Amino acid sequence: MLVYPSSIDLSSRTLRYLTGKLRARHREIGTRWRRLPVGRQALLALAHLRCGDTYAQLAAGFRIGIATAYRYIREAIDVLAARAPTLTEAMKTLRTKAYLILDGTLLPIDRIAADTPHYSGKHKRHGMNVQVLTDPFGRLLWASPALPGDPRPDRSPRPRDHRRVGRRRAEVLGGQGVVSGRRPARPCPVPRPTLKRWKRRHNTTHAKIRCVGEQAMAVLKGWRLLRKLRCSTNRITDIVKAVVVLHHAST
Questions:
Q1: Closest CA to 67 of 75, 78, 56, 51
Q2: What pTM does this model have?
Q3: What is the dihedral of CA 3, 20, 92, 239, to 10 degrees?
Q4: What does the mean pLDDT of the chain come to?
């Protein structure tokens, strides 16, 4: 296999942050020797998350075994996921913000036709749905646990964190797929097809405010691993949390 030098479009600040967290983890568990120094392990994890390189490619580039690369990357992801902001911490910004923006995206996965629960009828592909909260300036605050397929918030069971969003006092702007219940807690666009003039103005105003939340989707998809996940679906939640932590560390 040929090996060539490459680059990662991340700042050295992100590398130093992850290196510090891994070094603290090594001291905690009493690690004496590693095949890679802690700085190289952090670089290995960043290359996997940001560039989406496979374990075989990374193992060849760092001159380690595939199993070793898997263990090092998984350790780094677990360390980062443990520091992800909770929904309670993210909602503290409501004290200074007029509203938050709630939206979702589908993360494609390599499932087969037999995996019906992971199929999204809207996107015509298999994936995991993630809901995110952003502030009025599009800054990513929180990401939900990954759910299979493309669930409807008003018809399917939601985790406790999802239900708590609607019980906050401040308004949360939802997308076209977010429908309020009996007592609306967030403004939503008026459903089609009967749209009067005032309804069209309502939808236009709503879209102008909510479009800022698309910046959070761009942040997630900027980490190329999330564009096509080939891991177990049980690991996707931790991967998304790790991305959120690294995003906060780099800003």
A1: 56
A2: 0.80
A3: 30
A4: 80
